[in-house]
Amino acid sequence: MKRVQFAVSPEIRVGGSVFAPADMVAIGQIVGADAQIELSTFQQLIVEMNEEKAEDAKKSLREKGLCVYETGSVVKNLSVCSFCKGAEIEGLMAARNLNDTIAGMAVPFTMRVGYTGCPNACGEPLVKDIGIVKRKETFEIYVGGQSKTMEAKTAELLVEQVKEEQLSSIVQSIITLYQTQGKKREKFFKFVERYGLENVRKELGLSS
């Protein structure tokens, strides 16, 4: 019997990507005893289960308020801070809207986007492919971070003074550029190096 995988994460909330005990109970009951569940480095649980039961399980998980995503070469769910200064100050709704816009987009290579609600950068956005830092009432967007291998590097500032209503569309346009101009299995930081930071700005009509 064929088995398939999908990812499960909680809704972004104060505290970050936090599963409630009821979430864990629901996941176990819905996917069943014959499923396997792996904790990934993407703030996700990877569920492997029988294909014939998977779609019903996904539907039930969503009905419980959980987020369900595809695995593979897609934009992963947003990696976030804990919103320790409160939802309004640190832009919880902006983070949720961004996640809803970009999570699951197909890309040449698995992509991680990080969000943090203040300059303390607890969500480690500067080592993500795309990093967002909220600074007072506007946002900074960084690109090209890399946390693994001997090529680890911090992301570079792409644009600052971004308004909340612009945030999701700009990040989506960055990913769309990567979709269309990136090579197969080319990591995003390699794409930025090859394409050029200034060319990314120019293509998207941004100023530094």
Structure description:
The protein is an alpha+beta fold and 208 residues long. It has two domains: 3-69, Alpha-Beta Plaits (2-Layer Sandwich), CATH 3.30.70.100; 79-204, 2-Layer Sandwich (Sulfite Reductase Hemoprotein, domain 1). 35% of the residues lie in helices and 22% in strands. It has helices at 21-31, 51-63, 87-90, 92-102, 164-181, 188-195, 197-204, and strands at residues 3-9, 36-39, 45-50, 67-69, 79-80, 113-116, 130-135, 138-143, 156-162. Strands 5-6-7-8-9 form a five-stranded mixed beta sheet. A four-stranded antiparallel beta sheet has the order 2-3-1-4. Strand 7 and strand 8 form a beta hairpin. The longest helix is centred in the C-terminal third of the chain and has 18 residues, at 164-181.
- Mean pLDDT value: 95
How many domains? The number is 2
Indicate the CATH architecture of the largest domain.
2-Layer Sandwich
Number of E strands: 9
**Which strand order does the major sheet show?**
5-6-7-8-9
CATH topology of the largest domain: Sulfite Reductase Hemoprotein, domain 1
Largest sheet: 5 strands, mixed
**Gross morphology:** globular
Low-confidence stretches: none
What string, H for helix and E for strand, traces the elements in order?
Answer: EHEEHEEHHEEEEHHH
Which value, in Å, is the CA radius of gyration? 17 Å
Structural class: alpha+beta
| Helix content percent band | 25-40%
How many helices? The count is: 7
CATH class of the largest domain: Alpha Beta
Query: First CA to last CA: what distance?
Result: 53 Å
Full CATH superfamily name of the largest domain: Sulfite Reductase Hemoprotein, domain 1
Q: How big a fraction of the residues is strand?
A: 15-25%
